[in-house]
Specification:
Oligomer: single chain
Largest sheet: 4 strands, antiparallel
Number of domains: 1
Structural class: alpha+beta
Strand order of the largest sheet: 1-2-4-3
Helix content: 25-40%
Shape: elongated
């Protein structure tokens, strides 16, 4: 008798996407300070590492380290919640629509943050670059099903968040 996981065919819940974000984001790159005092944070598919600030002094007292963490977490949640209610299994033709939903949510979150923090300017940028993520520890049954017999590597589009502290 074959084994079917009904969870594969159910829509994403808020709890599932929040758990996935919490699992994936700590492994994403950390922030780096560029010339001109701009903080650059690379992410994957619109998600960023909220624990990425190496030196709180980069924020020049215009934002606390906790506010930074909350801001990055806010972008991640807005981006992730675009998938709540959507099917876990979908055709490749649906991928551009889903990526567009995430990008729009990320940009809207950044706009909200820019309105809240007047002395800090966030800029959200999608790139055409890709990065590889190791998915070996991912317990998601959908991902495991889709990657059966393959290396536990997923490609992700690089998204960059620039933070200018005025």
């Amino acid at each position: 008798m074959g084994c079917t996981n009904s969870n594969l065919f159910s829509p994403y819940t808020e709890q599932e996407v929040d758990a996935e974000v919490a699992r994936v984001t700590p492994g994403l790159p950390v922030a780096e300070l560029m010339n001109g005092g701009i903080i650059k944070l690379e992410g994957a598919n619109g998600f960023f590492n909220p624990n990425s600030l190496l030196d709180p002094s980069w924020l020049k007292g215009k934002m606390t380290a906790e506010e930074y963490w909350q801001a990055i977490d806010y972008i991640n949640k807005c981006t992730a919640h675009t998938h709540v209610g959507l099917s876990k299994i979908y055709s490749t033709s649906e991928r551009p629509m889903r990526e567009n939903l995430k990008a729009q949510a990320g940009m809207a979150a950044v706009q909200q943050l820019n309105e809240r923090f007047k002395s800090v300017r966030f800029t959200y940028q999608q790139t055409s670059e890709n990065m590889q993520l190791n998915t070996a520890a991912n317990p998601d049954p959908t991902l495991r099903y889709m990657q059966r017999g393959q290396a536990p590597i997923a490609n992700a589009a690089v998204t960059v968040l620039y933070i200018l502290v005025k």
